[in-house]
Amino acid sequence: MTSRLEKFSYNDSVVRAFALATAVWALVATFAGLWLALLLVMPSLNFGLPQLAFGRLRPLHTNAAIFAFAGNAVFAAIYHSSQRLLKARIFSDKLSWFHFWGWQAIIVSAALTLPFGITQGKEYAELEWPIDIAIAVVWIAFAINFFGTIAKRRERHLYVSIWFYIATIVVVAILHIFNSLVIPVGLWKSYSLYAGVQDAFMQWWYGHNAVAFFLTTPFLGFMYYYLPKAADRPVFSYRLSILHFWSLVFMYIWAGPHHLHYTALPEWAATLGMVFSVMLWMPSWGGMINGLLTLRGAWNKVASDPVLKFFVVGITFYGMVTFEGPLLSIKSVNALSHYTDWGIAHVHSGTLGWNGFMAFGLLYWLAPRIFQTELYSKKLAELHFWIGTFGILFYIVSMYVAGVTQGLMWRAFDETGRLAYPDFIETVVKLVPMYWVRALGGLMYVVGVALGLVNLLLTWKHRPATYAVVEYEAPPLGEFVGETPRFEIPRHTTISDTGHRIRYFSRATWHRVWERKPFKFTVWVTVSVLVASAFEMLPTFLIRSNVPSIASVKPYTPLELAGRDIYVAEGCYNCHSQMVRPIRSETERYGEYSKPGEFVYDHPFQWGSRRIGPDLHRVGGKYPYLWHVRHMEEPTSTTPGSIMPAYIWLFRDDTQFDSIQKKVDAMAMLGVPYGDAVNHAEALARKQAREISREIVAQGGPAGLENKSIVALIAYLQRLGTDIKLPAAAPAIVAGIAPGTEVKP
Q: Which of 179, 229, 418, 659 satisfies CB 3.0 to 4.6 Å to 206 for a cystine?
């Protein structure tokens, strides 16, 4: 071994910046969630402002929670732990600060666009294309910085945390790029490259795996580093961590379609997603067990250390959520839970419990070390822990009760064989008390976050005037080239040397070889993800019979297309689905179930994932024009007990007729057969708007609405589900296509 040593120090300034940003955005994200909870019981809290409406604010809340709060925590952990694990200063200080300020700018851009209706309308991927490009640029800078640090490392062995960080960086890049492919219409408007079933498949491949590789793998990575540090114990099992990592990376990528059970997605794809989701339970619990058993012999310390309390509860919630996820992927359970608040309980168990508590455990452990002073108040951290824990329990228990209540009421039949609760509003009224309890739980969690922020800021305030820079020494990596790892099988070993081979594999020596080769390791991670994705998605994209077209389904008229864009901008998909499932209670309530071919012109799809209001796929023609006017102007006038806000701004805002031609042109580029509308889309839109306006007046409504946004939105709503109409006495459905419709091969 050489005696030559290199001196180096770590860059903790960017870690401090990401840590403080984590705490600040945690308060912003959770407060936005509390405001949304209150909007569901007091819709008037939007004060008549479109920027404060539920449909526009919910994407802001989810983006803030995922990418601002959790994202900054991930970056703080990676920049801090990877330098120590690799024994190297971060590759580039300038790239680190570009990453920090670039990411904060992206978060602020979300806050400046989403409340103003600038959105792609895809859950967890709402940000428009210029911001998507910025995300890609910042992420590439982050990747260069991370892999550059690996290249200059002084530690040959890549610890388990680094594996999870590698998977995060590679897979998030793949997900973001492929899900963000669009045709721009203008600077702040675009249409997804995919349509209908294919767009839904792509979106939930992205959405589920964003949870996997942005909210799970990086948090597992820093669990494997900071939990042993805080407990002063080694990780329970190195071999279990190997099984945990590779099983998770390969299996997770298949699971997305379980979000689309009983929809127009091909049955084989949803079943495949379910199978892999159920299998995911095993590696996920392997990680939980590895984490909790790391604390063996340290339980007395857990009782007195708030950091370990946060970690233990966070890991426990990880175990709960990764058991519940496979459970919810089972079709019979999903039939009850999907579109209900059960999903909200599940998601917030993970976000508030797993991500939130792990993030604050991380911050409380980091604060004394990066600010080089004592934590301001251990008692305040304890108070944060207990208020937050009870807040989570109030939140998720109320939502579990609400979700099961919804599911059972929707599918209930009376003794005569009719729906027991035919009016959707009956379910909503039953849930209002649970929504109040949820708001109370959210308030408690926000108070805990505020206490945490105060504690961290006061700790930062007591920092030394100048941070001490500690220098470390280690030999350069090149001094160890040629070292043979222990237990590696020599080249001359024959197949008969079974004992040697058993020891080789059982002691995971083969994996230690991979851990010395980060390029090969990264390639194998990439291959495992791409192969799984290709096998699952390509049949749906390439085999026409999976998404048969229906001759009676025509493109939206120019005015209907403009109305659809208003629907997307207002975030209506956050409360309403557009997917009638082939379940008796749904067809009785809404009409004929939805077919794959009905969505071939939907860029993006709008199936939704929650029903605070009823499904809208068959709403076209169900009510007269005037009903929609009254409903949007004052929802309780048509639906007593409604918690939908009044959309009064739609009666003030003008339809942007001058942009309709560009939208139709973009749709034509995507293959939508618009025919003559390509030449004079604006004129056609104005003509249809005048006709609808005259009809509203004829029904006793107000005059002068032909240029207003409300008319365009009504045009779209009245079109929904009308391309397929069953005769009064319809024969049995064959192959999922309504009788009388022409199907192209």
A: 179
